[in-house]
Amino acid sequence: MSIVIRDVREHELDSILALNNAAGPTILPLDASRLKRFFDTAEYFRVAERDGNLTGFLVGFGSDSSHDSSNFRWFARQYGAFFYIDRIVVASRRRGGGVGRAFYADVQSYAEVRYPLLACEVFIEHDNDPARLFHGAFGFHEVGQHVMPETAVRASMLTKELCSYAWVRERYGDALPDTPWLRRTRHLPGPAQRSTGT
């Protein structure tokens, strides 16, 4: 009954699209072309499996990406370097079973050696107290609010400082050790592989 977090596979995009669009008003709907763009450009795009079934996904972008979300651009105006969680979706039958916490542990492990800050948002209008409580319990705090021009939905903008980043950056700079748990599995270049800093 363990949860497996792994990189997405292209043949799973139809299932992920259905999962996203069944999530309700707290997640913006997607179409197939935008999801494919996520697949092609996201620095982090992973799925959760439990008992061999797809139970959720998380998509994230580094601050130097060209991601076109207005929430991402809001964070880009406020902060120099951050890792942005665009969306996390967990199948309704699996909510409360630890999938969200497994995703956040995984994405934090990825981000904290590459970025000083984890950023995301939670919609305010849709009685989303469970999501706000989840993020607060995970160490996020509100740094502002933003009304998304494309939807007129107000979002609570959240960040979490990644305390390991400063030590890792001081010790290793842009060259992380070549160990399996740090090795990138996606084909996209990340800050640890670029010659410029984050």
Automatic annotation (TrEMBL):
Molecular function via GO: acyltransferase activity
Enzyme's top EC category: transferase
Keyword Transferase: yes
Superkingdom, natural source: Bacteria
PROSITE patterns from the UniProt entry: GNAT
Pfam hit, one: Acetyltransf_1
EC identifiers of the protein: 2.3.1.-
Domain N-acetyltransferase: 3-160
Coiled-coil stretches noted in the UniProt entry, renumbered to this chain: none
Keywords from the named record: Acyltransferase, Transferase
Name of this protein: GNAT family N-acetyltransferase
